[in-house]
Amino acid sequence: MENQSSVSEFFLRGLSGFPEQQQLLFGVFLCMYLVSLIGNVLIILAIGTEPNLHTPMYFFLANLSFADMGLISSAVTKMLFNVQTQHHTISYTGCLTQMYFFMMFGDLDSFFLAVMAYDRYAAICRPLHYSTIMSPRACALMLALCWVLTNVVALTHTLLMARLSFCVVGEISHFFCDITSVLKLSCSDTRINELVLSGFGGTVLMVPFVSIVVSYVHIVAAVLRVRTSGGASKAFSTCSSHLCVVCVFYGTLFSVYLFPASVDSTEKDVAAAAMYTVVTPMLNPFIYSLRNKDMKGALKRLLSHRQIFSS
Ligand SMILES: *[C@@H]1O[C@H](CO)[C@@H](O)[C@H](O)[C@H]1NC(C)=O
User: Fold this and answer.
1) How far is the CA of 112 from the centre of ligand 1 (A)?
2) 28: how many CB neighbours lie within 10 A of its CB?
3) Using CA positions, which residue lies closest to atom 7 of ligand 1?
């Protein structure tokens, strides 16, 4: 019975690991969160209201924006709330819920990036079959598959976590319920969790990454083959924004997981996690709206309509 009695809450270190800079960091995180929400909402609205952006590429971009908002919200809202209320705890249920949504949206991000790469591959390497490869039915199917897979993965990790006992109210040395940080606090055997995390979790991030790389190898080969400079640069310009986003997402992610910091430099871990949970969702709208002429036009029209309405 003693083993079964689990704690009902955890301490969440949040930003209190940085006492001097806490207020400054709070401001920075809050700004980045708001910028990210506004940017991604604008992207979704611009795509929704602009009929010539009703193509699979932009639909998936809108979906990516949605996943980005979910990712950043699941990661930072509790931390921002805790700093303001001076509370440093998160309930057990809250922690598992946060973990679930964080993993689901994070995986969804990488799945959408993979689908977008496949879309560019189809547009550039199979232009004659593009409308059948990316038919509305096929898009809906891919979308459904992304949601089902990411939910299954997130549910598996969360249920495995729910089996564990936590004997003391430990402190999660992070600003959100990061799965590895929570595992460290358990007094049960966590070997299965670690195995599933590195096997299943690794696969879920690697499969989209490998498919993106394979898509781009084909795209680059096709662009080099075409040679007609106009067509090639046009083809590649539709990829450059996506490629930037891919580099930012996987660059920050790999820098966290491939170069794990030593045990006592949790601050470095937290800073690195802030990169892919906060910076990536914030940058995506900028990358797309600054580099992409169609997107720029749609945003301008959206914002000028707003002004007409408000005046
Ligand atoms: C996601 O993509 C589908 C089609 O692929 C589209 O119908 C839907 O509107 C998109 N979702 C968002 C939030 O834009």
Assistant:
1) 11
2) 14
3) 59
Please report, for the domain that includes residue 236, its CATH number: 1.20.1070.10
Is position 251 within any domain? Answer: yes
Q: What is the total residue count of the chain? A: 311
Shortest-distance Cα residue to atom 11 of ligand 1: 63
> In angstroms, rounded to a whole number, what is the distance separating the alpha carbons of residues 261 and 219?
35
Q: Give the 3-state secondary structure of residue 156.
A: helix
Lowest mean pLDDT among 3-12, 95-104, 284-293: 3-12
Q: What is the pLDDT of residues 172-220, one digit of tens each?
A: 888 899 888 899 899 888 899 998 888 887 888 889 999 999 999 998 8
Tell me, yes or no, whether 203 lies in a domain. Answer: yes
Residue 117: CA count within 13 A, CB half-sphere:
25
Q: Return the closest-CA partner of residue 112 out of 260, 235, 254, 280.
A: 280
How many angstroms does the Cα of residue 242 sit away from the middle of ligand 1? 17
Residue ranges lining ligand 1, Cβ < 6 Å: 44, 59, 62-63, 66, 139, 143
**What is the domain range of residue 226?**
9-310
